[in-house]
Amino acid sequence: MSCSSPTIAITLDRVSKVYPGGHVAVRDVTLNIQTGEVLVLVGTSGSGKTTTMKMINRLVEPTSGSIRVGGEDISKINPIQLRRSIGYVIQEIGLFPHMTVAKNIALVPSLKGWPKPRQNERVAELLELVGLPPDQYAKKHPHQLSGGQKQRVGVARALAGDPDILLMDEPFGALDPITRGQLHEEFLKLQRRLRKTIVFVTHDMLEAIRLAERIAVMDGGVLEQVGTPREVLAHPATRRVADLVGADATLKLLGLCTVEQALEALGAESPDALGPVIRSGDSLKDALLTMVACGRASLPVVNVDGTLRGRVTLQGLQTALAGQEKDRRPQGAARGQGTHA
Fold it and tell me: Is the dihedral of CA 10, 16, 18, 23 positive or negative?
């Protein structure tokens, strides 16, 4: 039985944006975004990533080329109607300060004419989903929330109308590292549950690696490469991609793999002789750094509850990394050829 091909949610076909005065913000971008995937547009300031994303919901109109959402040319869709059907989250969050949390979240459902009981039910459901109990947060105003809580409300508001597509523009960029890391975990949990089509913009390659199913690297308005995080890390298509990946690409690649993937039996040694323990859900990067720090070539592996699972060795870590590279099927696009489905 043959596997069905992934469906395409968004298609950009030779899309360009040229501003008055001749500034080319986006040049001839072709890209297919699959239904239910997280595609991260990454690049430095001025690379064209935000402009590309904003053209999907017509906040910016392309100068040339075409964009299709669900197979329909968006130039033929009323822009207000289009935006109400696509969730949108930005770094500044944009919550209305005079509205309660509940009213902020219910904004799109109310504009769509949902009855009040359905709006209230949806608000409660979404607050629970983003980890904000409705009995504690529904009646609060934005000034009573922390930055992380505001961002959670922003995500809930974007999901309120149950859109198939979510656009996220540097949503966690203004948060402190600890809060940002917590929201990354919540984001991944939400996506595993909801499977929305998400276009996520960031300038942070580490954030892209952590959150993306595929990464689209942009520079100077041009799509440099499209591929999975592992593909982009292991095989950068251009010098600019290599610069963004950085010199520690191997460590970043190890950060994508868990100790579970290199788990071995303990062998003859006693667990105490193997050095500090590491959890099975930790990354191979964590394992390598711990090995280096304590001068060991192996570490005992434990479950979350502390029960012994086995061990991870330096040789096993190298084998796991080599196996990923061998099994990888290249998808990275050469400069300007981001046409992968």
Answer: positive
